[in-house]
Amino acid sequence: MNYLAHTYLAAPDPEAMLGALLGDFVFGLAALADYSPVERREILVHRRVDRYTDDHPVVAGARALFAPGLRRYAGIALDVYYDHLLARDWTRHSGEPLDRYTARFYEHLLAQRARLPERLQGLAPRIAAHDWLGSYRRRESVDLAVTRIATRLSRNGERLVACLDDLRRHEQEIAAGFEAFFPQLQAYAVQARASLAEAADRS
């Protein structure tokens, strides 16, 4: 899952949504101490959601549609494409208009900017100014985002970009798989959050 899906799974609370986004920028357990209990919980939910997604048979089947030399990178392309599918059909998933949802989140993100990890501090104004979350509704944003991510890889970024051809070839099958997978992911996120809350209550 990419930025939009992670925040969606934590919505509607902006604090929880920020925690979900922080899951891509906060690593290890010691770093959790810098964040609120809600943010810490959502960082951990993010990590569990990522593992669940990577291990899910539907997602594994989607990765198998890519050429063997690209499957290691296909998961990144799928994460971005799944955000596109969520944004494209947003009205089926949320009663809050996407523009209102993203504006509400960006306001909170920017208000908290000073206490964010350095990399996210730098990205936050661009995320808001260029509407990274809402832009996923446009199919061309998938190619743009994947290409942008490829430039940040230490090596083999061209293999990630090469995934875009296979993604286009198999879009219908991948989209059908997402329809089956996403409700299961939503249910899993609820369970993961409840499990973490129970563990916190016992500690």
Topology summary:
Elements: H1 3-10, H2 14-22, H3 37-55, H4 57-63, H5 71-88, H6 90-93, H7 98-111, H8 118-129, H9 132-135, H10 140-152, H11 157-169, H12 171-202
Helix pairs in contact: 1-2, 2-3, 2-7, 3-12, 5-10, 5-11, 7-8, 10-11
Description:
With 203 residues, the chain is mainly α. It has helices at residues 3-10, 14-22, 37-55, 57-63, 71-88, 90-93, 98-111, 118-129, 132-135, 140-152, 157-169, 171-202. Helix 2 (14-22) crosses helix 7 (98-111). The mean pLDDT is 96.
Element pattern in H and E: HHHHHHHHHHHH
The rounded Rg comes to 17 Å
Number of strands: 0
Determine the number of helices (DSSP H or I, runs of at least 4 residues): 12
* Poorly predicted tracts of residues: none
Overall pLDDT metric = 96
Shape: globular
Considering DSSP H and I runs of 4 or more, what fraction of the residues is helical?
Answer: over 70%
Keywords:
single chain; 203 residues; mainly alpha
In short:
The protein is mainly α. It is 75% helix and 0% strand.
